[in-house]
Specification:
Length: 138
């Protein structure tokens, strides 16, 4: 991601690392946790694990569009089209699972960190949209 602002590079690296961490958690820890859960807690675990995945997927997709802009593959205007923006706010901004004490600490940590990452990228997106809007208007 040469030539990109440092904030995008750091956020990309952080997101990629969190994706790997979440994958490892779901691969190695989740099966053990599931055997100790039944009924409603098991369903809650599944829903919140999917919420982590949704947040990280949305963030990485948005960052990949920004990378494509920096590499000259697409225009900033194209990256800012509605279908290319950060989405899934209804799911990704829901924080009810992070405070659920029945969820394992590892999942609660991923929920908290992925939520804050999603919020930060949402602010970055607003900054990018403002900058592109100003360019289009001028």
């Amino acid at each position: 991601m040469a030539g990109e602002p440092a904030v995008f590079t750091r956020t990309y690296d952080e997101t990629l690392n969190m994706i790997v961490e979440a994958r490892n958690y779901m691969t190695h820890v989740e099966p053990r946790v599931r055997t100790s859960l039944s009924g409603s807690p098991n369903l809650r675990f599944s829903c919140e694990a999917l919420r982590v995945t949704s947040r990280l997927t949305q963030v990485m997709a948005w960052l990949m569009f920004q990378r494509a802009v920096q590499d000259g593959e697409i225009s900033a205007e194209e990256a800012c089209r509605e279908g290319n923006r950060l989405s899934g706010q209804d799911v990704c901004l829901d924080t009810t699972g992070g405070s659920d004490a029945t969820l394992p600490p590892g999942l609660r940590s991923l929920l908290d960190r992925s939520y804050h990452l999603y919020q930060r990228v949402s602010r970055l997106e607003r900054m990018v949209l403002t900058r592109v809007d100003k360019r289009v208007i001028n």
